[in-house]
Design brief:
alpha+beta, 2 domains, six-stranded mixed sheet, 7 helices, 44% helix, 24% strand, elongated
């Protein structure tokens, strides 16, 4: 079966706007039951040389049931990155989320709702190969080292759990239910000559995950999605070209800095040589002065 490639922002957004599928994907990643989910779309307009495009940060207000049976309200923040430099965008956006808070059912004003971050990376990390990485907080008594099982609103509102998904590391080995579901992102399944499409075997997915495959199959025939993927390719190429030019400028600046450093070193060495020369001249002057003094004394004794 052919499906639209969800690594593209437009397809990913199409996928996650289906509430039933979004609940399935997020509950599988979090390994917790999601009781309700509300999409809180965030859009940022970005201008390039040839294009103006929109970056989507998908936020969901969710009510989840923990493994211990308790219910809690959280914000699930999803961001996708194609470049390692996107980390600064993540930090800025996360700071904004902490600052503004989010609405909670039954509350009149925004609350300091706990945040769970999920990052879909289009590149590999430097040191970790795992396709899905959990970063989960634990409370410990600093004196005894014992884990504290209870949770405090103060701590939960100022710290957060994260899940990092390395899309290039997703492959045929599917060890967990999460990896089985996220196989829809496996870029090794690209159709020959068309990176917009993935060729997948629907029967290779558990029955409960096939609805995701079928939904993405429906996106293949959407002309607007096709056109937007092509524009996204152009934007990506433009961004890569900008990065190459910036890298080239950085190299020139680095070479100039190195030349300036060498010039500064040469000037320092010249200054040191002049200082040594001045010291030699000073010693010679002192020697001549001493000789003049001795001659004067000899003349005065006659």
């Amino acid at each position: 079966m052919r499906i639209a490639n969800p690594i593209y922002d437009v397809v990913f957004k199409y996928l996650m706007q289906n509430n039933e599928i979004a609940i399935l994907i997020l509950s599988t990643i979090l390994e917790e039951e999601i009781l309700s989910l509300e999409l809180l779309p965030q859009e940022t307009a970005m201008a390039l040389e040839k294009h103006t495009f929109t970056v989507y940060q998908l936020d969901f207000a969710a009510r989840i049931r923990t493994a211990g049976g308790k219910e809690r309200h959280v914000v699930i923040e999803i961001q996708k990155a194609k470049f390692a430099a996107d980390i600064m965008r993540f930090r800025r956006y996360l700071g904004e989320q902490y600052k503004k808070g989010f609405p909670v059912a039954g509350e009149k004003a925004p609350q300091a709702t706990p945040i769970i971050s999920i990052y879909f990376l289009g590149y590999r990390l430097d040191h970790v190969d795992a396709p899905v990485i959990k970063v989960l907080r634990r409370y410990y008594d600093a004196a005894t080292g014992e884990e504290i099982p209870t949770r405090e609103e103060f701590i939960e509102s100022l710290t957060h759990d994260s899940f990092v998904i390395q899309i290039p590391q997703l492959g045929p080995e599917r060890r967990t239910t999460t990896e089985k579901l996220l196989a829809i992102f496996d870029q090794h399944r690209k159709a020959e000559g068309d990176g917009h499409i993935l060729d997948v075997d629907e029967n290779a997915y558990p029955e409960e995950y096939r609805k995701v495959v079928r939904w993405l199959n429906g996106a293949v025939s959407e002309p607007d999605i096709r056109r937007t993927m092509e524009v996204e390719d152009e934007i990506l190429a433009e961004l890569e070209d900008m990065e190459r030019r910036i890298a080239g400028k950085d190299k020139v600046i680095e070479e100039k800095d190195r030349a300036l450093e060498e010039n500064a070193k040469t000037l320092e060495e010249n200054a040191k040589a002049l200082e040594e020369k001045d010291q030699v001249i000073g010693e010679k002057d002192r020697e001549l002065a001493e000789k003049d003094r001795l001659i004067a004394e000899l003349r005065g004794s006659r």
